[in-house]
Amino acid sequence: MKKIIFFLIAISFFGTVKAQNTNLTFNHIALSVKDLEQSAIFYKEVLQLQEINNKTKMEGIRWFSLGEGKELHLISLLKEPVTTNKAVHFALTTSYLDAFVKTLEAKNIPYSDWPGIPNKVNLRADGIKQIYLQDPNGYWIEVNSVGNK
Q1: 85 to each of 90, 99, 113, 121, 137, how far by Cα in Å?
Q2: Three-state SS for 148?
Q3: Of 76, 44, 40, the residue nearest 58 (C-alpha)
Q4: Per the confidence metrics, is the pTM higher than 0.90?
Q5: Tell me, what's the pLDDT at 20?
Q6: Which pLDDT tens digit goes with each residue over 36-66?
Q7: Euclidean distance between CA atoms 73 and 37, whole angstroms
Q8: What pLDDT is recorded for position 50?
Q9: Are 89 and 141 in contact (CB under 8 A)?
Q10: Which of 33, 40, 99, 114 gets the highest tally of CB atoms within 10 A of its CB?
Q11: Chain-centre distance of CA 89, in angstroms?
């Protein structure tokens, strides 16, 4: 038993050291979407993301900038259903959360706090405000005020 525990600790230690040497950074997130045009309109008009060149040149894929060289890829090539819950989400931050909420309300886009109370802004224990909304495919998106409590 002691040998197994030592082996597991050794593997986790060497795995950690190796991971620290890989210098991995976040590049993009890809979402499988049912209706590419409807999804693209949501990300352009509601989240106001800038569409960028799809370097793959493949039909059925559109790319959007998340800033700082990070990207969102919408892919309509696969037809398998996607199911997700609120814990599986990506988060965007803004200095203008209150204005963003007003935009959502003007466009009749539903949002909620973490527990799911409609039209409520969540205030985390660290003072960060956040809301949650879903795109046309049901993906959860957090929008918060990180850096702008």
Answers
A1: 12, 26, 14, 19, 12
A2: coil
A3: 76
A4: no
A5: 63
A6: 999 999 999 999 999 999 999 899 999 999 9
A7: 13
A8: 98
A9: yes
A10: 33
A11: 5
User: Both tokens of residue 65?
Assistant: 């900038």
Please provide residue 103's backbone torsions phi and psi, each rounded to the nearest 5 degrees.
-65, -45
| Tens-digit pLDDT profile for residues 1-34 | 444 333 333 434 444 444 467 788 999 999 999 9
Percent share of the chain, pLDDT over 70 = 85
Report the alpha-carbon distance of residue 136 to residue 10 in Å, rounded: 45
- Averaged over 74-79, what is the pLDDT? 92
DSSP 14-60: HHHHHHHTS-----EEEEE-S-HHHHHHIIIIIS-PPEE--TT--TT
Q: How many residues does the chain have?
A: 149
Q: Which two tokens stand for residue 137?
A: 């495919």
* 3-state SS record for 84-129: CCCCCEEEEECCCHHHHHHHHHHCCCCCECCCCCECCCEECCCCCE
- The pair phi, psi for residue 12, each rounded to 5°, is -65, -35
Q: What is the set of domains in the chain, with CATH numbers?
A: 25-79 (3.10.180.10), 83-149 (3.10.180.10)
